[in-house]
Amino acid sequence: xxxxxxxxxxxxxxxxxxxxxxxxxxxxxxxxxxxxxxxxxxxxxxxxxxxxxxxxxxxxxxxxxxxxxxxxxxxxxxxxxxxxxxxxxxxxxxxxxxxxxxxxxxxxxxxxxxxxxxxxxxxxxxxxxxxxxxxxxxxxxxxxxxxxxxxxxxx
Length: 155
Prior knowledge:
The chain is an all-alpha fold. 71% of the residues lie in helices and 0% in strands. It is built from five helices and no strands. Helix 3 (46-110) packs antiparallel against helix 4 (120-142) and helix 3 (46-110) packs antiparallel against helix 5.
């Protein structure tokens, strides 16, 4: 036996303060080939071992399939996030610019010397459409933009 393997075997960790002897390769050679069966032992035959191995293989395959499906779902969500982000930014800037235009029209309408007058029905339309735009877009953001796309990405 090489000095390296003797060192590795003899330096195996032992519990602190134990008086156990150092284990060597010669101890393995002197070990009994067959151990006695105790009443607590469970006897397993080759067929049972084969069945257990098959079950483990099937479980492993099922877990790998689940892992692959989960990876695909995560990738789909990441792609959806990348597609949704620019649209959400455009929607936000549209809402800001639309509200700014409506505010400018209302300010011009409110300034008497400008001579800019809007009919009452146009004012009602502008204020109503601004409220609808803001409430609608904020509602989409609060419920998670494009919920249909997200729910389709889950399955």
